[in-house]
Amino acid sequence: RQVTSDASFHSVSFSETDHPKVLITGGLGQLGVGLAKILRKRFGNNNVILSDIRKPPSHVFHSGPFIYSDILDYKNLREIVVNNRITWLVHYSAVLSAVGEANVQLAREVNITALQGLSNSSLYLVVFFCFFFGLHNILDFAAEHGLRLFVPSTIGAFGPTSPRDPTPDLCVQRPRTIYGVSKVHAELMGEYYHHRYGLDFRCLRYPGIISADSQPGGGTTDYAVAIFHDASKNGKFECNLKPGTRLPMMYIDDCLRATLEVMEAPTEQLSMRTYNINAMSFSPEELAAEVKKQIPDFQITYNIDHIRQAIADSWPMNFDDGNARNDWGWKHDYDLPELVTTMLNFIGSDSR
Ligand code: AKB
User: Fold this and answer.
1) Which of 97, 179, 85, 186 is nearest to 138 (CA)?
2) Residues with CB under 6 A from ligand 1
3) CB 339 within 8 A of CB 275
4) What is the ipTM of this complex?
């Protein structure tokens, strides 16, 4: 599919006073179910559709609308958006940093452009006619249908040549992971579509997100979730990053609220389209010391994963989110002690 001129997009705008109709793609990852829950509370159960290519667990299936959507299939996406009069699209499908390094081709296909490397020419035709694109599909689609589009980015969109302490919104971005490269691509494409075609693109660079009832899938910051489960169950944890590796982090409730807030922010408050957001920064040894306050026998040991360590060493240590705070009033609720108490209570009560 080729975008040739501004005229190829006719905006189907919706009144700002209407409830949005939201589609969340990649909805069964770490964040989708939680986001659906807070959006449903705000806009009504039937106005938020969760989607994925995987079969949902029954509690997800019964908690609100769920449908199959394959972002690589333009026709499937069109049917969903048209049939449900979707006005907001939240695009959560992504392959994270560590898994991306282990499978670069998969990360490239899912995170950027899903043209598959098929050698058979008839299959090329099928691919061409079905418009298999990933992110590009979503951008074209959102522009064509006048959707408000949210695509998350990450601290991973920065690299070793970015200022790391703190990292501002605008600076050198030369990430060294395919995940980071794909996220810079998404940021730039979204902003380009915003300026060129008027796409209402909104993007937050998330820090490592910590959640108790949903698991991250193959990232570098995953240790900061696993530590709570192991501490609670076994009183010990083997960490795959060095003790002093400091990274920006956030509790999931803050992350989901930030997403809702930036999506609801009036356009005139947005001086940019891609914002850093942050809550806290800590290292494994600082996190372990906080866990020890509540589980005095807790022991942490270190067995370094060199791929994850190299990634973490190239990422921001502190994230400057001053523009989000000034422009649309971003403010985190959870600091490190609050995070640790909340996670241990949640996991403890779950296992009782
Ligand atoms: C990862 O570690 O890959 C993600 C991220 C920080 O984007 N959690």
Assistant:
1) 186
2) 96-97, 154-156, 179, 208, 216, 219-221
3) no
4) 0.98
